[in-house]
Every structure is written in structure tokens, then in C-alpha cells.
Amino acid sequence: MSASTNAVIPRVLKSHESDLIAEWMREQMSVFSRSTSKVKEADLRHQTSEFLNLLQVATEGGATDINSADFSRVRDMLHDLSRTRSISGFSPAETATFVFSLKRPLFSRLQKEMDRDAEGLATVTWAANELLDKLGLYTMEVYQRSRDQVIARQQEELLELSTPVVKLWDGILALPMIGTLDSARTQVVMESLLQRIVETGAAVAIIDITGVPTVDTLTAQHLLKAVSAARLMGADCIISGIRPQIAQTIVHLGVELNVVSKASLADAFALALQRRGRVVRRIESTPRT
Amino acid sequence: MERIPILKVGDVLLVTIQVDMHDQVASALEEDLTTRIVATGAHGVLIDISALEIVDSFIGRMLDNIAAVSRVLDADTVVVGMRPAVAITLVELGLSLTGVKTALNVDKGLALIERRARPDQDDDGD
């Protein structure tokens, strides 16, 4: 691409700035017509003129690679825009439109500019097209990345929420496990269990696996690790809530669970109370039904 | 060389580890403790590791060894005050110290040894 065509884009951006902004704004607003509450016109106008300005400065040096240093401010601006939109719940299409809707106004200006030069027009259009596509893809990439971050954070929060350690009685803790047990979760479970043992001075911990859908050798190993760690802290563990299918799987896999296990949490609790020297009994005075 | 003090409280020997355990200190402790058990006829050994922040496989094995030796000499070993991080590390190292009894703190450790010493309450279940 020759130097003369190279300079056309920044020149057009500069000379037609105000009407480009106006038309581009119209293009963008048409997309948001159904959900006007999401975006304020003033904000959009500000973003629009800022982007045009930055783009003009970036292309002035003849740079075409959007990863180059010339484009760093354009990238930063798109990055911020994309992230803000992703967080405030814009759809991918609405986010990408910001860059892509510049095409129509820009191309029509370029056409006027290159009036009699068909070959030059084709070259310039192609260059502009390529540039805007790349910027659009960059926007999408950032959008996707911020979405991924949100998902990762939610996973983390879910992890902490799903592993409560409950105090059932003085010196007795219960740990109702829900969901698949992988190494990361076992680590969190183990840490919170041990921490609670220290805080409450518990001597018995009941690990209830009613909510664990499947138990394979790895899961069993993770469970045993938690049990061993609790034992090192001076607390005995009881495993409860082993469903019939899981009991069969454990036996078929040949896994040895060298831990006291009970069918239900109630049975485990009764055993734990007994170990603490307590017993649950009916009060004599209540009328029997 | 640094040595870890061994205190005699009634029938129980109390060891409080307050310094970083080098291998040499650990070996010396093992030896001293064996001698003291024989000399005092103690029936319980309480090792308080609440100040211990770092363990390696050697220390883990040392605890196991002390327990095995004391058992031969008719004394129960109880390790007390292990920190959560230390417990997780030991388990990850594959050392679950199966021969060692554990308790959360010195109080509970002493109670545990006491209970073992009195046969009428020895039907605890574990």
C-alpha cells in the first residue's frame, strides 16, 4: 500500500470529524433503540469522539498493526470500554457494534474522497476494513476475557459458600459436603474444617457425603486426607450419608475407608454424642402419643 | 548444641518444641526422651508443637519414631497443638502418624493420657 493511500484514512478522519461523529452516533443509537436505558447519549458521544481522535492520531504515522505502540492508546480506550460494557451487562453484539458501526460512515467518506481513483479506493477501503475488523476483534477478546474473570470469581465464591462447617453440639462439628469433590475443593474443605476445630476445640467431626454424587478412588483419597489431617489435630472423624450405590462402588473399587462410617447423619450424631458421654432421651413428663 | 527441655509433670513428660527443628536437635531429643522415660518410669509423653510452623518428612518420621519407642517402654505419646497448615503438610507428605495419638491442646492431651491410665474408663471406643 502506497504512502498516499496510507494518509487518506487519517486525513478523512480529521476533515470530516464532526459529521462522522454525527452519523456514527446515529448508527450506534439505532442498535440501542430497544434498550436505551443502558447507554447515555452524552457518554456515547464522548466515547465516540475520543475514539475517532485517538484513531486519527494512531493512523497518522502510517501504522497498520494494532498491536504496535502507535495504537496503545486506542487499545487502552477500547479495553476500558469493552470491560465496562461487559460488566454492565451489554450483549456481545452491542459491544462489538461500537467499532463495526463506524464502517458505513467511514467508507462513504472515503468513497467521496477517492472520487476518480477506483484502484486507490479499493486499497483504502480494504485497509480501513482490515483495521476496523482487527479493532472489533480486539474489543470482543477483551469482552470475553472480562466475562471469564467474572465466571472465575463466581466459581471461587461458590467454592467458599458450598463448604460450611457447622457446630452441632459442644465439641461436635458437622461438614455437609455438596457437589463433586476435586482436589481444589478438598483443600478448601480441609482448611476450613481444621480452622474450625481449632476455634471450637471440637473432638469429633462428622463428614456427611449425602450431597456427593459420585465417589471414585480419587474422591475417597481426598476424604481420607481430610480425615487424617483432622486426626492430627486431635479430632476423630465419622463419615456419614454413604448412599447404597456409593457403598457398592467403594467396595467394588477396593478402596479401604479405615474410618468409622454411619449410614445417616443422625446415626453419626448419636455416636458422636455417646463418645462425648452424652445421650438423648425422652423427658418423662411429656405425654406420650 | 541446642537441646529441647523435657519437663516432668506428675507421671507425664512434657516436651514443648519452641525452636526450629534441625535434624540434629530432633535426633538429640529422641535420645534424651528415651533416657528420661526409662529414668522416670513415666507412662505418658506429651509433645507440644503449637509453636512449630515448619515440618518436613524428617520431623514427621521423628514423631513416629518417638511414639514407637515410647510404646515399647510402656508410655503413650500424645502430640498436641498441631497447626492446621502443619497437619495438611504432613498429610500431603503421606505421613499421617498412625502410631501417634493426638489432641488439640495440652489440657486435652493430659486428659487423654489420664484416661488411658485409669482402666475403668478405658472403654472409650477408639
Helix content of chain A: 55-70%
- Report strand order across the widest sheet of chain B: 1-2-3-4-5
- Number of β-strand runs of chain B: 5
- Helix count of chain A equals 12
Query: What is the CATH fold-level name of chain B?
Result: Transcription Regulator spoIIAA
> What can be said about the biggest beta sheet of chain B?
5 strands, mixed
- Can you give the mean pLDDT of chain A? 85
Question: Quick one: CATH class of the largest domain in chain A?
Answer: Mainly Alpha
How much is the average pLDDT of chain B?
86
Question: Which secondary structure elements does this structure contain, and how are they paired or packed?
Answer:
The complex is a heterodimer of chains A (289) and B (126).
Chain A: H1 3-6, H2 8-15, H3 17-32, H4 41-60, H5 72-87, H6 92-100, H7 103-113, H8 118-161, E1 166-169, E2 172-178, H9 183-200, E3 204-211, H10 217-232, E4 236-240, H11 244-253, E5 260-262, H12 265-275
Parallel strand pairs in A: 2-3, 3-4, 4-5
Antiparallel strand pairs in A: 1-2
Helix pairs in contact in A: 2-4, 2-7, 3-4, 4-5, 5-8, 6-8, 7-8, 9-10
Chain B: E1 6-9, E2 12-16, H1 23-40, E3 44-48, H2 57-72, E4 76-80, H3 84-92, E5 101-103, H4 106-117
Parallel strand pairs in B: 2-3, 3-4, 4-5
Antiparallel strand pairs in B: 1-2
Helix pairs in contact in B: 1-2
Task: Summarize it.
Chain A has helices at residues 3-6, 8-15, 17-32, 41-60, 72-87, 92-100, 103-113, 118-161, 183-200, 217-232, 244-253, 265-275; strands spanning 166-169, 172-178, 204-211, 236-240, 260-262. Chain A has 289 residues and is α/β, with parallel strands linked by helices. Chain B has 126 residues and is an alpha/beta fold.
